[in-house]
Hints:
alpha+beta; globular; disordered N terminus; Arc Repressor Mutant, subunit A
Amino acid sequence: MKLAPAPCNHFQNSAAVAGTFKMTSALKDRDSREAPDRAPIVLAAAATGLVDFIEAHCGDVDSIFGNSGIAPDMAGAPTLKVKLSSYCRLFEEAARQVRPARFRQGNFGLWFGQQFRPRDLGMWGYAAVSAPTLGAALDNLVRLFHFHQESSWMRLAAGADGLMRLEYQIYSSEIVERRQDAELSLGMFANVIRDCAGSKWAPVEVHFEHPRPDGWEEHETAFDAPVYFSQRTNALLFPPELLRRPMPGSDLQLMSMMETCLESLGSRRGGDEGLADRVKTAIRVSLPNGYPNLDRIAAELRVTPASIQREFAERGITYKDAVELTRQNLARMYLEQRMLSLTEIAMLLGYSELSAFTRAFTRWTGASPRSYRKLRH
């Protein structure tokens, strides 16, 4: 079977693919000597075109990348790995600094994701677009995701309403700011589907786990669909019959090569999806519904309350401490978002009254939420 020509310059021919395979083997040997507790990573291919996009909107590339701890020349490299926390910080920093005329400040990740071509995801993207059907393409995205990005998960499942849900979430509790990553990621995934269904394709609904931001109308314009915020996961919803459509760039040999290259680059780290991180993620998404009761969180994760308590005891904290720390981190992030009122922030953190949030925040920081916000702006 002949390899189809690829528009991405990383994989223009089989010789390039073979070269990439050799490179990934060498990188795997190097990575096997690293400490097992290294920070979660993402392949730098996820930032392909970012430098040009920032410059096109008059952003300061050196400042944005410098504040994020990533070198500009790493962006887009198909086999290089960068810290996931640095990658997320990179887009949050770009959203803070770039003031484009074409879209509202703060929606940087949203529009970067909308223009991102699936093949620019490197090996992971090619493994999807070279699949025989859209269903197989999305299955490849989900199945191979852990080779592309750690401390995160993807899932393709049917919802109770009969619609398919392509879901995505970072579960690392250390990464608090993740709005830009969520918005650009769903844009990337939508473009994989558009590669099959056409550029005019739109999901039935789009869900984001973060609160509704200023300029949220642009989200509905970008996806041409209703967009809902403060949801349990980030997700694209679409009809199941779409999965049967053939992919226009189907190439089984190329798909197999990309899978092999990804597997050679590195395998999933043992213990990556730790119970503590799973609990903290469940706490985070449950807070808008009130205080996350331990028994309820345990039932949701299908573990016992005692196992959660033991996990945190080994880390020198209690379950209540974990809830408090999650609230503290989220509170500081939400206070940076001027469009959120203090009452809305209190509700997002699971407080029934603003006064309860004010007392808690003052206890944590020595300043009231209102004073803290004034000092930060």
